[in-house]
Design goal:
By secondary structure, the protein is mostly helical. The protein has one domain. The protein is about 65% helix and about 0% strand. The protein has nine helices and no strands. Helix 2 runs antiparallel to helix 3 and helix 7 packs antiparallel against helix 8.
């Protein structure tokens, strides 16, 4: 009696596992696009694969779970580090670890996303600068209307200022604030929460969660939301409207943080009003 391999229990189990892993079902049954269809490089999301593999889930878990444990859930306290280490040193070490992980697991996807700038790069960069200016003005107007001319300084902002004044690690910390951690945060809040998981949930829902969690991570008091929630919303919109392009959202994030670091460094040298 002959048997058909396509109907064997092993084959059926494989098909079932593939269907569970990919919500769109087995990839070999998907119709190929028509040859007459023009596919734009800009329209294709740089960070949204058609199907998440086991390797994708492993990368997401190894990077995402520790990140959420340290920065969102506070499950792992910083007291695990030696008491002789100050807060700046602890932050630099943590930032270094997560930056290396982000580059190791998602660096290739980040680099490929810069192809978004091949067409009209000056226009796209100018758009980010204009958007940053509008967002900063909106932030100032919101905080001015709520708190008056002397709004409170966010606790996170105070910590950044204190760390940047460290005579030993101040410049190293400045690099992570301006360049390194924006990449780490974009990988987690945009590339993973939206780009990867949008295969399983609506983009608008994941975008809302991403913006809120980003703001929540930076807030020590709920009043700080007026400062960080607008930034989280803009970063989410930049990411989605660019076709889920992590390079573009990272550029905006790095621009915002770099200007903040520059202002902090220049503040002592600026003329003080009488």
């Amino acid at each position: 009696m002959s048997t058909d391999p396509s109907t064997s229990p092993t084959a059926e189990a494989g098909n079932t596992l593939e269907a569970l892993t990919c919500p769109h079902g087995p990839t070999d049954t998907e119709p190929s696009p028509l040859h007459t269809e023009a596919v734009s490089d800009e329209a294709a999301p740089a960070s949204s694969p058609k199907c998440l593999t086991r390797a994708d889930w492993v990368r997401i878990a190894i990077f995402g779970i520790p990140y959420a444990s340290f920065f969102l859930l506070d499950i792992i306290p910083t007291s695990i580090f030696p008491a002789s280490w100050n807060a700046t040193l602890v932050n630099v070490i943590l930032d270094s670890i997560f930056l290396v992980m982000a580059l190791a697991f998602f660096g290739r996807e980040v680099l490929s996303a810069f192809s978004y700038l091949r067409r009209r790069p000056i226009r796209k960069i100018a758009l980010l600068c204009g958007l940053w200016l509008l967002t900063t003005m909106a932030q100032g107007a919101i905080r001015l209307s709520i708190y008056g001319p002397n709004p409170p300084v966010a606790h996170n902002q105070q910590g950044v200022v204190s760390a940047l004044s460290d005579s030993t690690l101040g410049l190293t910390f400045a690099f992570f604030v301006a360049i390194g951690m924006p990449l780490v945060e974009e990988v987690f809040y945009r590339h993973i929460l939206i780009g990867k998981l949008s295969l399983y949930a609506p983009t608008w829902l994941l975008g809302s969660i991403s913006a809120f969690l980003f703001a929540y991570m930076h807030c020590h008091e709920w009043q700080d939301m007026t400062m960080y929630l607008p930034v989280g919303i803009i970063l989410t919109l930049v990411y989605i409207k660019s076709g889920k392009n992590i390079a573009y959202s990272w550029m905006y994030h790095a621009l915002n943080n770099s200007i903040m670091v520059a202002v902090i460094f220049l503040a002592p040298t600026l003329p003080q009003s009488a």
